[in-house]
Specification:
Organism: Fusobacterium necrogenes
CATH superfamily of the largest domain: Calcium-transporting ATPase, transmembrane domain
Helix content: 40-55%
CATH class of the largest domain: Mainly Alpha
Largest sheet: 8 strands, mixed
Number of domains: 5
Structural class: alpha/beta
Subcellular location: Cell inner membrane
EC number: 7.2.2.14
Shape: elongated
Number of strands: 25
Protein name: Magnesium-transporting ATPase, P-type 1
Membrane topology: Multi-pass membrane protein
Radius of gyration: 36 Å
């Protein structure tokens, strides 16, 4: 994943922004609307269909390309170029010299053997191709999943109504309509706006919102990012509304022009990636220590430095986890596809592990806990009487606002249409009134205002919002057609009524108006004073039938749910109590502001419900939870959730969320339901389980092999296995492991959040690794002192065989090497089944069919090789029946000891994987 560097405005203007682009932006900034539209060959009606198609042909899609797309050849090269294949390549070069070039020039054709080079080349080819194929599958899966989530923008085109189109289809000259929560789709010149604030932090690193205006700018000294009538691609709308005309798209935008500067090729590594890399380098460090030791021990004890070198490099091959990148990529890609089938889209593959390790889910209330179907239950005057005049004014406010129409607005509009069938005064209000101005909603005022005018010229300012904030701007109230002073007694009555509604789970907002507020056509927050309180609206958003069950299920999987909402505390308490959340203690935003980080870190562990929060307070809670050691997920769909989603370990949104929320998310749910989240968590943990299986198998197996090889090198008078045997064994074992991403996972493993802990790898290696060495050494003793003397040298040990009897010594070596070759494959393969589960293998827990098939085929293949021409060519030999009895007893004993050690390990550390 690429990341943006923080670059300030001065740097943006001094870096690689082309002079002509800079000049073009300034020209567009200095033109009046009519001249601007003429220069762009467009109009307020937008471009024609033909113009749009032509623009796409000339300029391409509205997409920024961060560097050239990798060619097929480059992808192939990258798949093959890594430290592991480099080791194999070095071994191939050495083998070419020792097995082919030297025999050729020394006229000893009997020593000429290309088989080692062929097998090593095969290993490199298989490793590289498998990695290439899985990388391609992973990339294709990620692209396909991303394509399922489309971000759109609202545009007007000639001869068509305003419509939503994908961001990539935006062209120069498009007329774009923007509101809170939208992403700026391209570089725009603002031609009309109202209280329009955007965040340019992704461009400049500045956190404060910037106000944009529709005015001509002639000041050449201003930096391009300071031109307040230009909105740049990559920004997002914080509040207000605007209409803009597209002046640049894709790579021709400001962001596109400086993308090479802004974007770093450095990958942002997740904790899991860092852990995987640490294990890889740990094994490589072990290899770099062990290989020289093995080389010198064998060189001094056996006398052949060339063979010692080949054997040492072969050991290096066996100790390097060359399949690790491919296995990890396969697990992630498979996990993403499986999650997609369960209505969970993964935008960032590396977030899957964080999903599985999540132990706290922070979520908004509306639409997640509740039904997402808000119903307007009551529209009352200040004394609690049903009043259609209140509904009428509420409709005008909701209908004419240009910002986001939330669920409350939609329910007001729906209720008005229903009541219109019984009350004609509620019919066709949108035709009777015209909009004059608007003061958009923001999270500090917690209210929004529209100004409308009827056909007689009468103007009204209509405001709706949170009750406390509305009371603060009202001086009068309306009752039975009269305007009276809003007394403290009436305020107390209103607050008491609202409290009763809140305790019943109804959300209440207040409504106020002011007639003929000002002769001007432009209004601001300063005009929201001395208003007339008309009444209030009470909404019911009941909890979903599945919510209580979903929260209980998440708890069963070790995920604690916390509700972070901007809503009223009484409403939140009522709703949360109905779905099984602990609603005894509720923390308000005002309380949080008065707490230090130390105090808050203690409180957040005890409290599950947080109400009346601002976006920054949500973000602060997430930060504190992370500092307390939790893996935090945040589920939201509004602009007020975006900052907290970015701060969380894993941001979760839905496909119907506002653009900036979807952009901030790592995971997108196709259904806004906590039950869907449960399925995603399970898939995330399955993915993690199969990755950690392979890592621990590889680490412990390689660690054990180090001891086995070192012991054999020190005490045997010959090499315990030929280099070609080690390479072939490693190849077959790696191929048998490629099915691990499809393995079954025990249900018990899925119940607990799984965090990456690199320290557990070291512990696991120290416990399980030496266990295999014990039985490797047992096989050495059995082969060296019993089977080889019995069936090769008539009871004579190797050291007692005369040097001149080279054929007999070679047969002795071949039988020994064949025995360890087969025992190594059996033990390494069967331990896959032992380590994959803390339960009794083959009895309480059975591997998936692909794992069973591939591991069985690996064992069979290795077992029959000595009886084939290939085996003879490789220096292997047939083994007597007694060996197979001994092998079975050794493997049974090995499995029994591993089971015992496994249980002791679990008892000490609490878990196996």
């Amino acid at each position: 994943m690429k990341k943006f560097k923080n670059i300030n405005k001065a740097e943006i203007n001094s870096r690689n922004l082309k002079d002509e682009e800079n000049k073009k932006i300034r020209v567009y900034s200095s033109l009046g609307t009519e001249e601007l539209l003429k220069k762009l060959d467009t109009s307020l009606e937008g471009v024609t269909k033909e113009q749009a198609e032509k623009s796409l042909d000339i300029f391409g899609k509205n997409i920024i390309t961060h560097g050239k797309k990798k060619s097929f050849f480059k992808k192939i090269v990258e798949a093959f170029v890594n430290p592991f294949t480099a080791v194999l390549f070095c071994l191939a070069l050495v083998s070419t010299v020792t097995d082919m070039i030297i025999p050729w020039y020394s006229n000893t054709p009997e020593d000429f053997s290309p088989i080692t080079v062929i097998i090593i080349t095969t290993m490199v080819t298989i490793s590289g191709l498998l990695r290439f194929i899985q990388e391609e599958k992973s990339n294709n899966a990620a692209e396909s999943l991303s394509a399922m989530i489309t971000t759109t923008t609202s545009v007007k085109r000639f001869g068509e109504n305003k419509k939503e189109i994908p961001l990539e289809d935006v062209v120069i000259g498009d007329i774009v309509y923007l509101a809170a929560g939208d992403i700026i789709p391209a570089d725009l010149r603002i031609i009309e706006c109202k209280d329009f604030f955007i965040s340019q932090s992704s461009l400049t690193g500045e956190s404060e919102p910037v106000e944009k205006k529709a005015q001509i700018i002639l000041d050449d000294k201003l930096a391009v990012t300071e031109l307040n009538n230009i909105a740049f691609m990559g920004s997002n709308v914080i509040s207000g509304s605007a209409i803009g005309v597209v002046i640049s798209t894709g790579d021709n935008t400001l962001l596109g022009s400086i993308s090479k500067t802004l974007v770093s090729d450095e990958k942002i590594e997740s904790s899991f990636e860092k852990g995987v890399n640490s294990v890889s380098w740990l094994l490589i460090r072990f290899m770099m220590v062990m290989v020289p030791i093995v080389f010198f021990v064998n060189g001094f004890t056996k006398g052949s430095w060339v063979q010692a070198l080949l054997f040492a490099i072969s050991i290096a091959v066996g100790l390097t986890p060359e399949m690790l990148p491919m296995i990890v990529t396969t697990c992630l890609a498979k996990g993403a596809v499986s999650m997609a089938k369960k209505k969970t889209i993964v935008k960032n593959l590396n977030s899957i592990q964080n999903f599985g390790s999540m132990d706290i889910l922070c979520t908004d209330k509306t639409g997640t806990i509740t039904l997402d179907k808000v119903v307007l239950e009551y529209h009352m005057d200040v004394h609690g009487n049903e009043n259609n005049r209140v509904l009428r004014h509420a409709f005008l406010n909701s209908w004419f606002q240009t910002g986001l129409k939330n669920l409350l607005d939609l329910s007001i509009i729906e209720k008005t249409h229903e009541e219109g069938e019984r009350d004609s005064s509620l019919l066709e209000l949108e035709k009777i009134y015209t909009k004059v101005d608007e003061i958009p909603f923001d999270f500090s005022r917690r209210r929004m205002t529209v100004v409308v005018e009827d056909k007689s010229g009468k103007r009204q300012m209509i405001t709706k919002g949170a009750v406390e904030e509305m009371l603060s701007i009202c001086k009068y109230t309306e009752f039975k057609g009269e305007i009276v002073l809003l007394t403290d007694e009436i305020k107390e009555e209103v607050l008491k009524t609202v409290e009763n509604f809140n305790e019943d789970g109804l959300r209440v907002i207040a409504l106020a108006q002011k007639t003929n507020p000002s002769p001007v056509d432009s209004f601001g927050v300063k005009d929201e004073v001395d208003m007339v309180l008309m009444g209030y609206l009470a909404f019911l958003d009941p909890p979903k039938p599945t919510t209580a069950k979903a929260i209980a299920a998440l708890k069963e999987y070790g995920v604690r749910t916390k509700v972070l909402t901007g809503d009223n505390d009484k409403v939140t308490k009522s709703i949360c109590g109905k779905v099984g959340l602990n609603s005894k203690n509720i923390l308000l935003g005002s309380d949080i502001d008065n707490m230090s980080d130390e105090e808050l870190s203690t409180v957040v562990e005890k409290v599950d419900i947080f109400a009346k929060l601002s976006p920054m307070q949500k973000t602060r809670i997430v930060q504190i939870l992370k500092e307390n050691g939790h893996t935090v997920g945040f589920m939201g769909d509004g602009i007020n959730d975006a900052a907290a989603m970015k701060e969380a370990d894993i941001g979760i949104s839905v496909d119907t969320a506002v653009d900036i929320a979807k952009e901030s998310a790592d995971i997108i749910l196709l259904e806004k339901d906590l039950m869907v989240l449960e399925e995603g968590i399970i898939e995330g943990r399955k993915t993690y389980a199969n990755m950690i299986k392979y890592i621990k198998m590889t680490a412990s197996s390689n660690f054990g092999n180090m001891f086995s090889v070192l012991a054999a090198s020190a005490f045997l008078p010959f090499l315990p296995m030929m280099s070609i045997h080690l390479i072939l064994l490693n190849l077959i074992y790696d191929l048998s492991c490629t099915a691990i991403p499809w393995d079954n996972v025990d249900k018990e493993f899925l119940k607990i959040p799984r965090k990456w802990e690199a320290s557990s790898i070291g512990k696991f290696m120290l416990w399980i690794g030496p266990t295999s060495s014990i039985f490797d050494i047992t096989t050495y003793l059995l082969m060296y002192f019993v089977i080889c003397p019995m069936f090769v040298s008539n009871g004579v040990l190797y050291n007692s065989i005369p040097v001149e009897q080279e054929t007999l010594r070679t047969a002795y070596e071949a039988m020994f090497q064949t025995g360890w070759f087969i025992e190594s494959m059996w033990s390494q393969t069967l331990v896959i089944h032992m380590i994959r589960t803390p339960k009794l293998s083959f009895i309480q827990s059975i591997a998936s069919l692909p794992v069973i098939v591939l591991t069985t085929l690996g064992v069979i293949f290795v077992s029959i090789i000595p009886y084939t021409r290939l085996g003879i060519y490789l220096g292997l030999t047939s083994l007597p029946l007694v060996f197979w009895f001994g092998l079975v007893l050794t493997i049974v004993a090995y499995m029994s000891v591993v089971t015992f050690v496994k249980k002791k390990y679990i008892k000490k550390y609490g878990e196996l994987l």
